C-alpha cells in the first residue's frame, strides 16, 4: 500500500502521509491539511472517522471483538489481575512487580483522607441529587483543598496528583452513596486492599463490624477492571481535551465524570436496569419492547445494546454475562430481570433489525444486574463505572501531558447568517 494519500480539490492535488499503528491500523495524517490547502478542513460529526491522538494505552478491534490494555487481553486481566495492578499497568505501561505494587498502594493510602470540610459541601446538596452530579462537583472541589495538584511540571508532580486522587476518589464515591442513604460519612481502613476498602466505606453499618464477602470483592474487582479504559470514548476524550488546556487533573476528571453521566455513555448501566424493571412491571413482554426499539417514531432504544466501535460482541459483555450468572448463583440471589435480559438478548441476536445494524449487548447490559445483586443502589451504577474508569482517564491524561499534545480545539463549518447590519430595538 502507498504511504501517501492524495486529495484532489477543484483540480488541485495534495498529498498526505499514511501512517500505521502497531496493530496495522491505517490513518491519513492530515496535520498539514489547512496550511497546505489554504484553509480547507474536514467535517466529521461525532468524530466517527477522526483519530484525535496517537495512544499506546488501549487497543480495541470492534470488528473482531478484541480489547487489550497495554497489550494484555481483557479476558486474562479480568481473570488473573486485580484492579490496582491494572491501574498501574494502564497508567505506567507495565504490570508492576511486587515492590512497585506495594509502593503504589502505600502512596495511594497516604492520601486516603479527604479534608473534613468537603463534608460541608456534600451537606449542601439535597438528598435527591444524582450521585454523578455530586461526584463530579466534589472531584472538582478537591482542587481547592489540594491546589498543588494543578501545576504539574514534572513526572513527580504528576505522580503525586495521581496517587492523591486514587486515594481520595473512593472516599468521595462512598460518601455520595452514604449521603443519599442518610448514613454517617466514614473514612477507610488502610489495612485493607483497594477494593475491599471501597466496599467497607460504602456498606459499613455504624452499629456493627463490616465483614468482607470474597464474592463481592471478586465481583467488584472484575467489574472495575472491565471498565478501566476504553481508548478515546466520550468521557476519556473529554478528560484529554479539558486537560489539554493544562487545567488540573482533578477538574479534567470532573469533566469526564459529567460526560460519563449521560445515558448514551456510562449512564446506560442505570438506564438498562430501569428498562428491565419497566419491562418486568409491564408483564415481561419483551416482544413489545423489541418493537418499540425498532420503531423509528418511538424514541425508545434498547439500552445496553449497540456501540460506536464494537460491531461484534463487546468482549466485556461476554465476561460480565458469565460473571452475572456466577455472582448471582454464589450469592444465592434469584433476580427475574436476569431472565428478561437474557430473553431480550436472544431475541435481538435473532432479529434482522439488530443483526443488520450489528447491534450487540455492550458492557452495560449485564453489569447493573451484578451491581444490584451486590446491594449497590441503581443510581450509584454510573458512579461505580467512574470508579473503574478512573485509572484509564488518568493514564490518558498523563499520556496527553507527556506527549505535550496541543490544546484541543476543533474547527467548524459556519452555516449561519452572513454579515448583516445591526437593527435598533424599535426597528425589529
Ligand atoms: N436500540 C435500537 N436501535 C439502535 C440502538 C439501540 N440500542 N443503537 C443503535 N440503534 C440503531 C440506530 O437507530 C441506527 O439505526 P438507523 O441506521 O436505521 O438510523 C443504527 O442502529 C446506528 O445507530 P447510531 O446511533 O448511529 O450508532 P452510534 O454509533 O452513533 O451510537 C450508541 C452508539 C450511542 C451506543 C447507540 O448504540 C445507543 O444509543 N445505544 C443505547 C445506549 C447504550 O447502551 N449506551 C452505552 C454504550 S457503551 C458505553 O458507553 C460504556
From TrEMBL:
Pfam families: Citrate_synt (PF00285)
GO molecular function: citrate synthase activity
Active site: residue positions: 307, 364
UniProt GO BP: tricarboxylic acid cycle
Record lineage: Bacteria, Pseudomonadati, Bacteroidota, Flavobacteriia, Flavobacteriales
One of the record's GO cellular component terms: cytoplasm
PANTHER family reported for this sequence: CITRATE SYNTHASE
Record-linked InterPro entries: Citrate_synth-like_lrg_a-sub (IPR016142), Citrate_synth-like_sm_a-sub (IPR016143), Citrate_synthase (IPR002020), Citrate_synthase_AS (IPR019810), Citrate_synthase_bac-typ (IPR024176), Citrate_synthase_sf (IPR036969), Citrate_synthase_typ-I (IPR010953)
The protein, known as: Citrate synthase
Keyword line: Transferase, Tricarboxylic acid cycle
Amino acid at each position: 500500500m502507498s504511504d501517501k494519500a492524495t486529495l484532489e480539490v477543484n483540480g488541485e492535488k495534495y498529498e498526505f502521509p499514511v501512517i500505521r499503528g502497531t496493530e496495522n491500523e491505517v490513518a491519513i495524517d492530515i496535520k498539514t491539511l489547512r496550511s497546505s490547502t489554504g484553509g480547507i478542513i474536514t467535517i466529521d460529526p461525532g468524530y466517527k472517522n477522526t483519530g484525535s491522538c496517537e495512544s499506546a494505552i488501549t487497543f480495541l478491534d470492534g470488528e473482531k471483538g478484541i480489547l487489550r490494555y497495554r497489550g494484555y487481553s481483557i479476558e486474562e486481566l479480568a481473570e488473573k489481575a486485580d484492579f490496582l495492578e491494572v491501574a498501574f499497568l494502564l497508567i505506567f505501561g507495565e504490570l508492576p512487580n511486587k515492590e512497585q505494587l506495594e509502593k503504589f498502594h502505600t502512596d495511594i493510602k497516604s492520601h486516603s483522607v479527604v479534608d473534613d470540610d468537603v463534608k460541608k459541601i456534600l451537606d449542601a446538596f439535597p438528598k435527591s441529587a444524582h450521585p454523578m452530579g455530586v461526584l463530579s462537583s466534589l472531584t472538582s472541589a478537591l482542587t481547592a483543598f489540594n491546589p498543588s495538584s494543578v501545576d504539574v511540571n514534572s513526572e513527580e508532580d504528576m505522580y503525586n496528583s495521581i496517587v492523591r486522587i486514587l486515594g481520595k476518589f473512593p472516599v468521595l464515591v462512598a460518601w455520595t452513596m452514604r449521603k443519599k442513604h442518610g448514613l454517617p460519612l466514614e473514612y477507610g481502613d488502610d489495612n485493607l486492599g483497594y477494593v475491599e476498602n471501597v466496599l467497607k466505606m460504602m456498606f459499613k453499618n455504624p452499629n456493627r463490624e463490616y465483614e468482607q464477602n470474597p464474592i463481592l470483592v471478586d465481583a467488584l474487582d472484575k467489574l472495575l477492571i472491565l471498565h478501566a479504559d476504553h481508548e478515546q470514548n466520550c468521557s476519556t476524550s473529554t478528560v484529554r481535551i479539558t486537560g489539554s488546556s493544562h487545567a488540573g487533573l482533578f477538574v479534567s476528571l470532573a469533566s469526564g465524570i459529567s460526560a460519563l453521566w449521560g445515558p448514551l455513555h456510562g449512564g446506560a448501566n442505570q438506564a438498562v436496569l430501569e428498562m428491565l424493571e419497566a419491562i418486568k412491571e409491564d408483564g415481561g413482554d419483551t416482544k413489545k419492547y423489541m418493537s418499540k426499539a425498532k420503531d423509528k417514531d418511538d424514541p425508545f432504544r434498547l439500552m445496553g445494546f449497540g456501540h460506536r466501535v464494537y460491531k461484534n460482541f463487546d468482549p466485556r459483555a461476554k465476561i460480565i454475562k458469565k460473571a452475572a450468572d456466577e455472582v448471582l448463583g454464589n450469592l444465592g440471589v434469584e433476580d427475574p430481570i436476569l431472565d428478561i435480559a437474557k430473553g431480550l438478548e436472544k431475541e435481538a441476536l435473532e432479529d434482522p433489525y439488530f443483526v443488520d445494524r450489528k447491534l450487540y449487548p455492550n458492557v452495560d447490559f449485564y453489569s447493573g444486574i451484578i451491581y444490584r445483586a451486590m446491594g449497590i443502589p441503581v443510581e450509584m451504577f454510573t458512579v461505580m463505572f467512574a470508579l473503574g474508569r478512573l485509572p484509564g482517564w488518568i493514564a490518558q491524561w498523563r499520556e496527553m501531558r507527556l506527549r505535550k499534545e496541543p490544546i484541543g480545539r476543533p474547527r467548524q463549518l459556519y452555516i449561519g447568517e452572513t454579515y448583516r447590519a445591526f437593527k435598533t430595538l424599535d426597528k425589529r
